[in-house]
Design a protein that fits this description.
Layout (H helix, E strand, L loop, with lengths): L3 H14 L3 H12 L12 E3 L4 H8 L5 E10 L9 E15 L2 H20 L3 E4 L2 E11 L3 E3 L2 E16 L1
Parallel strand pairs: 1-2
Antiparallel strand pairs: 2-3, 3-7, 4-5, 5-7, 6-7
Helix pairs in contact: 2-4
Amino acid sequence: MLPLTLIAAQKVANLLTEENALQTQVDAIASLANQNIPTIDSSRIVISSVPPDLGDRDVQLPYPRVCLYSNAVKNAQMEKFRSFSGAVGVVAEVWASANLVTQTDVWIHYYVEAISTILRNNIGDWGDGMFFSGRYDVKFQQPIAGGLGFVESAAIACSIEISRN
């Protein structure tokens, strides 16, 4: 059986990749604002916590991309007779890169809006004893030199409640 930390990250990855949901959502939001935003196809959504510099140098991950990973586990034992009754924190870190910092500065907001919309549309039972309450936090990072010229990222963190024997 996979560790809960990988299962939780995979659940979020499935939400983003199923029927190319993330790109569909980005396209919908961008068309409302008459913007052209680079595509994030399902192959660019990976379960990895690799930082941008290693992703560029050693892993060769393309831009834009979404890296999913678990960042916290808390077995609060809210249900006394369960082996795990608590939460796993999952982070969706989205990275954009372009020659112009103004492009990454705009694009990152569309990607965050698309991911957060997908999360909001999937509040509730995710199966396998996992439940999403709808709460998430977003942290934006300032652009830095790298990638195709400049790299900017944002981390969308959510907590998946889990109840298992």
